[in-house]
Amino acid sequence: MGKINFKASKGYIKKNYVKYKKYWEEMDEFKEFLLRSPKNNDLAYCTLCEKDFAPVLNSVHRHFDSKYHRTKYNDRFNIVEELGSVESQTARTELKLTGLISTLNLPRSTMSALIPVLKNVITDSEIVKQMSLDRHRTGELMRRVLSPAHQEQFANKLRQERFSIIIDESTDISTDHCLGIMVRYHDRKYQKIKEVLWDLIQIYTEPNEIASAEHLTELIVQSFKLADVPIENISAFCADTCYLMMGAHNSVSSNLKEKIPAMFINKCNCHIQHLSAKSSYECLPEKLLTLLSSITNYICASPKRLNQWRWHQKASKVEPLRPIHPCLTRWLTVCNCVTYMLSRWTALKKIFRKQAYKKNLLHPATDIYNIILKPETKIYYQFLEFVLTKYNKKNAILQSIAPQVDTENSVMKNLLQDVLKCFINKDYIEQHIDHLDEINPKKESEWLHLHCLDKGKFAYESLFKYKLIKNEEERENVKNVS
Asked: What's the superkingdom here (predicted)?
């Protein structure tokens, strides 16, 4: 049983051995009856049922949840499973339905429509007849019964396990400033890494309260102390890279580090990329920063102009889509907006040329059209798309569902190399390839010539098309780079 053979056409060609794990005996659900088999050291053995089974965690769970094992347990301890009264069964059914609504994230008003249907269909059940669930009662059961029970069950796991926390601030629709605490831990039962929302705390409880580092640190510590979870079990801390969270002195991370010296602090690499790209974006001419928003606002402000924009896109043989608004608070969304505008550049010229001729010289449509006509505008956006695409590809890897702990360092290293190669001498980079932190980006002697900078394929093509590179030597330099 402990040996699994894989059979091929010419006989047994490969043998894999699955061995019994000693630490299973320490797990709460197995420690009473699970031992290593006395007949075969590779098998698991149940002392209650006196049976051997495969040394696989799923097989262990399956045996302990089996009807045979439960019957043996009830017979040994004289436990009789009783259905109980109708009232208790009704309460149990209501809790089960409430848990289903919560798990599937359905609206609570579903219960107001579901219960009458059940009473109409199931007419011979006293349990269904006594059910009185509606939207309000479902919410009360979630808040007063299921939530505290789930919180206590989760807290029991954290008292025995080390875990890491991820925090962030948010403002909901009611203008309450909240602090969300996510917990990442290893679930022994399912042998998986899980992420669970631990708490959502209101930051401001008094009119003149300040969201200082000391106040946020105290909220985090108190959240775990109220649940009797020792803060020494926190093994790692992660947050965005603002000074309040990650400053060297008097920040949330530094305050937690004083209380938990063994805690590891990890900065959010996705947020670092966003701040880097945002700072670079702000170095462009000011009109380019507002042009994307101006185009989107002007077209979307009128249903008539939106309909005209749809037909201009069809005439340019591109898929008709609504303009994308560049939201700087959403990480790296500017790239999608720039790509959208560049793919519809011809349609943009047509619709704003038509709008500009109808309006006076001071109208916003005229200003937008004059900026679009300049070849430098398109080249700037092509260069911006080239650079931001590098960030987006790396950011997509880091934000994938699968764990990226083993690849995170190499991803950030490759991104740094790609960005440095755009404007720094390659020989200088090769000299410090193993220690990229020793490279000084401000060292002007190692900068590439202005016309040798890597601007991206489409930006180069536009430079030649609009004849913005006139010197033959400069043309050769650009050809060599491209």
From this structure: Eukaryota
Over residues 196-214, mean pLDDT? 82
pTM (2 d.p.):
0.61
* Per-residue pLDDT, 479: 44
Cβ neighbors of 106 (< 8 A, separation 6 or more) are 100
CA torsion sign for 340, 346, 349, 351 is negative
